[in-house]
Amino acid sequence: MTLYYNATAACPVNNWQLTTQAASLVSPSNLVSPVTENGALNVKPTDPAIHALYTFYLKLTALGGSVAYHGPFRLDVGCTTTSVTFADDENFVTTGVPKWVGDPGTAVYTLLPPSSTLPYCTVTSNIVVAADGSTPHTKINNCASQP
Amino acid sequence: MFDLVDTIYPETITFKILSTFDGGRTHVSPLVTTIKTCNNNYPITEVAAVASPQYVAHLQSLIGFAIPSYTDTQQTGCPTSTFEVSSTDSPTYTAHPTLNQIQTIGGIE
Q1: How far apart are CA B18 and CA A129, in angstroms?
Q2: Chain A hits for B37, Cβ within 8 Å
Q3: Do A104 and A49 share a domain, yes or no?
Q4: What ipTM is given for this predicted complex?
Q5: What is the model's pTM?
Q6: A99 and A105 in contact (C-beta within 8 Å)?
Q7: Which chain B residues touch A103 with a CB distance below 8 Å?
Q8: pLDDT band at residue B103, thresholds of 50, 70 and 90?
Q9: pLDDT higher than 90, residue B99
Q10: Domain of A64?
């Protein structure tokens, strides 16, 4: 996070407060106050395991009482609709292996999994669904469908 | 890798793959199509034999030779569906010159 200074070096900004508003102090419940780590002030979510986009402002107070608001700032944590997109493999195959009636139905299709624009957003499961994408499929076995 | 639940019936199956990523984000694949087809090598066996010769009264045009019933190894999805009367037991079909084809109500006329 950027460190702020006022024009008078003798009266430095000495208080940083998070707020959800552009011109008033309403502390966000899902972010913790900035803490210094490795020489920089950092804002972190209350629960770092949650995938979410946080928008916040900073209320800056200088020694002597001068106040300013800056922002908005956005902290995008994890895999959100605003942080990552997915794409099918360029060699994605749209046909399964033809089978004869009565033959083993194994290995009818091998998935080339989709890719992610963020390395930490990885596939956790693949399941077969109906053509409309909405319901579980009854003719393809999902037992062997893990990535 | 995905498997078919069964290969009992001939059919075309379409599906998509729903991939779930960290954070619950999802991605749906393009449509995939796969087919199951009846093969032409299923052994056919006779289920119930019939008498031969069969004797029928003359001029009863609707009654003929009642043929046996047959089944094949994939009878559920690929049943024996065509019966043709041949004049020989050769694998090459030769239409019989004096018998009509099979009528389901009675037999061969």
Answers
A1: 6
A2: 98-101
A3: no
A4: 0.81
A5: 0.78
A6: yes
A7: 7, 39
A8: low
A9: no
A10: 13-77
